[in-house]
Amino acid sequence: MISGWQIAGTFNIASGRPFTVYSGVNTYSNVIQSMANCNGCPRNLGTLIQESGTNFWFGGSERAQFTAPGAGEVGNSGRNYFIGPIRVEADMSLSKNFRMTERYNFDFRLDAKNFLNTKHFGFPTAILNSTTFGRIRDSVNSSARRLQLSVKLNF
Description:
Layout: E1 6-14, E2 18-19, E3 37-38, E4 49-51, E5 54-56, H1 60-63, E6 66-67, E7 82-83, E8 87-99, E9 105-113, E10 146-154
Antiparallel strand pairs: 1-8, 2-7, 3-6, 4-5, 8-9, 9-10
């Protein structure tokens, strides 16, 4: 009963996906929304912070660095310039084969998806003239920890 247990797992850490910050106005044409200006902004600008109980990707001082481009300008931040939140996920499995007789045995297995119950946030609001610019709020793109128990009889 005590020996013979097997543990297995996977650990996945991924950098955030790129996203574009738009100005929210059409300064170049009537069809294409212009990107925002952000002078001296590094590509990894932003981190998950909480302000007044709300999750933000860009803090107040970081949000102040963004400006809308002038008429006829496109904006200097570029398409997919900024990087969103990282993704960390750990999955685990615990199993054991119990032998009852020479002919009969059964397998016990417990699988845990998102074992550490880590939240994966979506992109922040990336439109500069929006009242919610830079806010992630509660846009979580992951599921809670899931457990699955399985037993298999072999004969």
